[in-house]
Fold:
Amino acid sequence: MPDQDRLTEKVCLPRRGDDSKRILRGNLDVTEIQRSLFALQDENYRKFNSGLLPTVDPETMIGVRTPALRKLAKQLVREPDAGSFLQELPHTYFEENCLHAFMLESIEDFDECVQALDRFLPYVDNWMTCDLMSPRVLGRHPQELLEKIEEWLVSGETYTIRYGVNMLMKHFLRERSGDGCKAGDTGVLCSDGDRLVFCDSADLSV
Structure:
């Protein structure tokens, strides 16, 4: 596995003050974001994470723990040009994708959030990044969300489908009682023993 020097060399991270090597996307200095990530690097955690994520190239992993990523994402969303980072895809590093996922959670408008998710999901290549994203705004629009989930489930993209299932379970899963579902539960996903069913189609296993 590559060491930190090799990873740093790969993207040519500049020394402070060396403007000639900076990578700019929009008005946001992506090199500064990458430098911040490397400053948080935990080599042992990188090696551990690599074993959990076989679909991710180990050379694209820096090794930053999730709480630190979440904290950095909260700082970045306060930047006036944070949106430019979300627009520029694909990212170089696994941790940049995780930052992207966390930053999406700050979007307050449902349509804007869904559009941002649709731009990002095709670049998601692992279960961890997929499972990190849970914008609160989605739960405030259940009908619109359910319609969008239906699109994700037939996308043909592994992690887009996984995300649709995640959102279905998070926002629509209910425990099914022995007497069946309550009136008005149409379209709600229910746990019925060892299977999942829609309450408006009790014989449908998902």
Summary: The longest helix spans residues 158-172.
